[in-house]
Write a structure and sequence with these properties.
By secondary structure, the protein is an all-alpha fold. It contains two helices and no strands.
Length: 90
Amino acid sequence: MTAPVSHNAQALAARLIDKILPIVAADLEALKREKARDEAVMHACRDLGAAVDRLDQMKFGPGELPARRALERKARALAKAMERHRDARK
């Protein structure tokens, strides 16, 4: 009596695997892309933090203006990375 149930389960599993496998594979690819975008945003955050540190070190000195410009560039780069991340999630 258990043999037909086992056979039915195997047949059902074989039919389902063809339907489920592409879905799981697509989800895994989406997770990889999302991880790459998250890493890009985090890299931009670290760059922005470093630019803030440089500006703090250069305040009221001759290097303040270049440090301020670098901070502005890094802030824009972060905004762009976050925008790409947000657009990709839609």
